[in-house]
Design goal:
323 residues; alpha/beta; Arginase, Chain A; 12 helices; 43% helix; 12% strand; binds zinc ion
């Protein structure tokens, strides 16, 4: 049975932020409402509400105290968000309208990872901040929800010492923050299909950490993209599950691979993305690897629809809802 983690506080609402960044900052609420439309009342039975945002203590699992202190100043928050025109905004407004939703989303990733381990599959309708490093936020990613979740589950004993984590990043951007967070942690195995011509293309060190590095050509189409995924994902998952126990699969399912996305420069159709997601769910399920899906990047007005379509099919295939 699959679970869906969502809270209305995920939406980022800030004085016209949507005009300053190519990002639908309310796509989380839109995805939830679309999912309700597609699935109906049954969805509520599988909904895990989020109780709070992650605490400072939990964030210290992934970040230094100095970094968290820096994130109380506007100029540092704005630099990580990469929206210079917000520089004059008071820090308390940025904390309330931008950082607070991100804390709730990070807590959602922890809850979704816990749910995945207990029930097989779970989706957080936000999260996937894969550019956040221990001492630096960048690329609109401030808190490394992925590192917080992995380390918290280990501390709780839900992921035991020596058990493995399969991290599959299919967002258009390379997940450099995750690579840095787990640079010396060889129980985390990284599969990353990305466009190497866009940010963070200068982060050479991050790419060296990827276990299965699949660079894509600019404007890569669905046939080539899905062919690469089908060719490499099964071998990656087999190789790590044959020689050890994989306690958790993390699927960073960014939708900025859609044709026309202003940042991704990959050319998948909506059907290709649905196929990508269902194929990936299936590969985890086939190997009985608990999977948590995070929605990550996606900068078109259609992003929420793509997310809802994939989650709806995941619930259907999982037998959660009929149809
Ligand atoms: Zn991205």
């Amino acid at each position: 049975m699959a679970a869906v983690v969502y809270n209305r506080r995920y939406d980022i609402g800030f004085l016209g932020l949507e005009r300053l960044h190519p990002f639908d900052s309310r796509k989380y609420g839109r995805a939830w409402r679309e999912l309700n439309r597609l699935v109906g009342r049954d969805l509520r039975r599988y909904h895990i509400p989020v109780d709070r945002g992650v605490s400072d203590e939990e964030l210290l699992l992934a970040h230094s105290p100095e970094y968290l202190a820096r994130m109380s100043q506007s100029k540092n928050i704005v630099a990580a968000l990469e929206i210079p025109s917000l520089r004059r905004a008071p820090a308390f407004l940025l904390r309330w309208n931008v950082l607070r939703p991100m804390r709730w989303a990070a807590r959602g990733t922890v809850l979704a990872a816990q749910a995945a381990i207990s029930c097989g599959a779970a989706v957080n309708l936000s999260g996937g901040y894969h550019h956040a490093k221990r001492d630096a936020g960048e690329g609109f990613c401030i808190f490394s929800d992925i590192a917080v979740a992995i380390r918290q589950l280990r501390a709780e004993g839900r992921i035991k010492s020596g058990q493995r984590i399969a991290y599959v990043d299919l967002d258009a951007h390379q997940g450099n923050g995750v690579c840095h967070q787990f640079r010396d942690d060889r129980d985390v195995f990284i599969f990353d299909m990305h466009n190497p011509s866009i940010y963070p293309c200068r982060d050479v060190e991050a790419r060296q950490r990827i276990d299965c590095d699949l660079p894509l050509p600019v404007d890569c189409g669905g046939r080539e993209y899905l062919g690469l995924l089908r060719k490499h994902l099964p071998g990656f998952l087999d190789s790590i599950s044959r020689s050890g126990t994989v306690a958790l699969g993390i699927f960073n399912a960014g939708t900025d691979v859609i044709q026309g996305d202003p940042l991704g420069a990959i050319a998948l159709s909506a059907e290709d993305i649905l196929e990508r997601d269902l194929y990936t769910f299936g590969e985890f399920r086939k190997r009985r690897i608990p999977m948590v899906m995070l929605t990550s990047g996606g900068y078109t007005r259609e992003s929420y629809r793509l997310i809802a379509a994939s989650v709806c099919e995941l619930l259907r295939q999982d037998g959660t809802v009929s149809g």
